[in-house]
Amino acid sequence: CFLSALGLLLAYYFYPATDSFRPEMLQGKRVIVTGASTGIGEQIAYHLARMGAHLVVTARTEAKLKKVISECLKLGAASAHFIPGTMEDLVFAEQVVTKAGKLMGGLDMLILNHIAPVNLRFFNGDVASIRKVMDINFFSYITMTSAALPMLKVTNGSIVVVSSIAGKLITPLIADYSAAKFALDGFYSSLQKELQLMNVNISITLCILGFINTDSAVKSLSGIVENITPSPKEECAVEIIKGGALRQKVIAYPSSIYISMWNPIRTIQEYFILLTYNIDNITRN
Ligand code: NDP
Q: For residue 214, how far is its CA from the centre of ligand 1 (angstroms)?
């Protein structure tokens, strides 16, 4: 048992993707990108456009989304649409998926990337603001995933969840953001195992990111976090797309932060916990 657990562990962490990435993998694929009006999401949209994907992008700022889709069409997107609105509204979150499915005639990949603006500060007892952040950064992700699962089952599609090192390691001043990112890890890591147990061929890729040079991140860390050079958002976006296309369980960017995911004890314990389950007695929907 121990040796097989160790084998699985090593395979989990070190086994290279069996397929190598080719941009054609995204050609004609139908993709939703959230938080695509700026930052990493905008760059993901541009790369997917160059690869010839069909795109539906969303965020709150309609004017920026219009510019993004016009650029996507110039870059070669098979089609590009935008749906503006706030992910604070979970009805909107669900509607984005159903509308996008109709616009594109199905769905191959759901890229969940948006976040509420980040304010570095001490927790001041404001529970309402934490709830708002959880709605935007966590519950809207789950809502969109739930709405997308039936379409993704048809296409053997992929869910890509953009998370952070702050969802793996503890840092002060971002308790709300960190809570949402840890929650995403817990939810999607569990869902990954459930889909596997049910033989549902939908991949989930959790993207663990370090400091990236988006305007918002540079601005919010300025004067507080020093002596770290941010990594380029353009390259980060490519790594996220590659991870999704290659159906990797987890990716880390920049690769230097990969060590933060190295938790062999957790992986061994998870393996043994699963051995105690009587899967045949679980009702499958
Ligand atoms: P940005 O702040 O640059 O972009 C956030 C996006 O989310 C924008 O498109 C914004 O558009 C949208 N958004 C904000 N509020 C809402 C809302 N209420 N409803 C719908 N959309 C909203 O973020 P980054 O590009 O820096 O980050 C992208 C992802 O990468 C996030 O998941 C983040 O946690 C992760 N990450 C980033 C790091 C970094 O250093 N940049 C580090 C680690 C992780 P609009 O305002 O128009 O709504």
A: 9
